[in-house]
Specification:
By secondary structure, the protein is of the alpha/beta class. The protein has two domains: about 220 residues, Bacterial phosphonate metabolism protein PhnH (Rossmann fold, 3-Layer(aba) Sandwich), CATH 3.40.50.11310; about 45 residues, no CATH class. The chain has seven helices and twelve strands. A seven-stranded mixed β-sheet has the order 1-9-8-5-4-2-3. Strands 7-6-10 form a three-stranded antiparallel β-sheet, with no helix packed on it. α2 packs across α3. The chain is globular, with a radius of gyration of 21 Å. The model has no long low-confidence stretch (mean pLDDT about 90).
Length: about 300
């Protein structure tokens, strides 16, 4: 297969297909295979220098570039939004160096690269979700030394993390972890879920899709293969809970079963009060709902 078939003439002269050289791609793929074989296990890899700053998604970008092929369809989101600065620039870089088709529709994409969210639409087995990771090891909260944290993972010694969670409940009445909620994978490895909200954590359990995680700054990759057991940390008398509030709904599509973001609307008159307004974090899913509702309304009007 011609690795540069989708490139424009200018890009063909400037870049290898998907920017990274082929030897580096093979090394990343080998480490990803190991990560898939050991779900939740942190696998070191030789993180390359990328034309973006570390901390802006270099790990997820390298995973995507190592796996993408000319026939793939790509979607890039940041906190569910297709049009954020991070999403737009990563998408532009990948498209410029591969020539692949770009989409904002989750159902059309074969590879989705994301930061902070898992798409609302149920993903299929023939799709791949790549997550950008700022901090790969959940034990960093309780053990700053890398060597000791590695030993703790090898020995499945997670007592200090359980104590940390217990203290959070005692001090605040909650787990006090709004994102990057730690989970146990296959009852063996404790894993960081990246800054996805607690609302998205249950989507990792027994999912049909392969989830790949890349931390460029920390030089680690890990994976959750399809149909893998993923259980959030919880106590028998204090179970895991999400942030979902069914009383809130999206101002645009009316959904109350999605993850919502909020902003405060200032009052128009001095005597009135401001209010919080909510909207779906997943902009593509929200737009689909609006279009379906509009089509349904028009159909009802034309067929009384």
């Amino acid at each position: 297969m011609d690795g540069q078939a989708g490139l424009t003439p200018d890009a063909h002269a400037l870049y290898n297909f998907a920017f990274i050289d082929e030897d580096s791609k093979r090394e990343i793929r080998r480490q990803l295979l190991k990560a898939v074989a050991l779900p939740g296990h942190l696998v070191p890899f030789a993180s390359r220098d990328m034309p973006i700053a570390r901390g802006w998604g270099t790990g997820g970008l390298q995973v995507t570039l190592a796996l993408i092929e000319p026939q793939d369809v790509l979607k890039v989101i940041d906190q569910g939004d297709d049009d954020s600065v991070n999403a737009v620039n990563l998408r532009r870089l990948i498209q410029k160096t591969t020539g692949v088709q770009i989409t904002t529709d989750t159902s059309e994409a074969t590879i989705i690269q994301t930061r902070h969210r898992i798409p609302e639409e149920r993903m299929r087995a023939d799709q791949l979700l790549v997550l950008q990771v700022p901090m790969a090891d959940p034990l960093r909260w309780v053990e700053p030394t890398l060597e000791r944290a590695t030993e703790m993972h090898a020995e499945a010694d997670y007592g200090r993390m359980w104590v940390y969670m217990y203290e959070s409940v005692v001090h605040s009445g909650d787990m006090n972890v709004s994102s990057q909620y730690p989970v146990m994978v296959q009852d063996r490895y404790m894993m960081d879920t990246t800054p996805i909200p607690r609302y998205d954590v249950p989507r990792l359990h027994m999912a049909e899709t392969l989830y790949l995680f890349g931390a460029g700054r920390e030089k680690r990759v890990y994976a959750v293969p399809p149909y893998t057991k993923v259980a959030p940390l919880e106590f028998e008398d204090y179970p895991f809970r999400t942030e979902h509030d069914p009383a809130q709904h999206c101002k645009k599509c009316g959904a109350n079963d999605t993850y919502l973001t909020s902003h405060f609307v200032e009052p128009l008159a001095p005597a009135t009060e401001g209010r919080w307004v909510y909207a779906c974090s997943d902009t593509s899913y929200c737009q689909k709902r609006v279009e379906r509702h509009s089509s349904h309304t028009q159909a009802n009007l034309s067929h009384p």
